Amino acid sequence: MKQSDESKYIQQHLANERTYLAWIRTAIAIIGIGFLATTLHFNMPMNEYMADTIATLISLFSLLLGVITIFFATFIYIRNRRNINTQTFHSSFIIIIFMTTVICSGLLLFSFYYLFVI
């Protein structure tokens, strides 16, 4: 049997797949947190327009963040797969900075909601 590029770097490809699955789990957790926050909010007896709007924004923001995370995880997985086979390396610095900024923005939105609305 002839050895392919994929079979030469089995450990690296398996690590790449594990990393991809970890990003997918993270995206699902982010989406779940948004739904949890909204569900808990709308189960409370208060009926304020501002609180309802912020709870809805938190839910939409976490859904969007989860979808963006899945998109970037897939992009990075495909790029790393190609880089493993060609033995080149490009760090994910820009994507990491972007995701950190987006997640910090979400935390600020959650903080605003819990400090000023509830």
Automatic annotation (TrEMBL):
<feature type="transmembrane region" description="Helical">
    <location>
        <begin position="20"/>
        <end position="42"/>
    </location>
</feature>
<keyword id="KW-0812">Transmembrane</keyword>
<feature type="transmembrane region" description="Helical">
    <location>
        <begin position="54"/>
        <end position="78"/>
    </location>
</feature>
<keyword id="KW-1003">Cell membrane</keyword>
<protein>
    <submittedName>
        <fullName>YidH family protein</fullName>
    </submittedName>
</protein>
<feature type="transmembrane region" description="Helical">
    <location>
        <begin position="90"/>
        <end position="116"/>
    </location>
</feature>
<dbReference type="Pfam" id="PF02656">
    <property type="entry name" value="DUF202"/>
</dbReference>
<keyword id="KW-1133">Transmembrane helix</keyword>
<keyword id="KW-0472">Membrane</keyword>
<feature type="domain" description="DUF202">
    <location>
        <begin position="12"/>
        <end position="82"/>
    </location>
</feature>
<dbReference type="InterPro" id="IPR052053">
    <property type="entry name" value="IM_YidH-like"/>
</dbReference>
<dbReference type="InterPro" id="IPR003807">
    <property type="entry name" value="DUF202"/>
</dbReference>
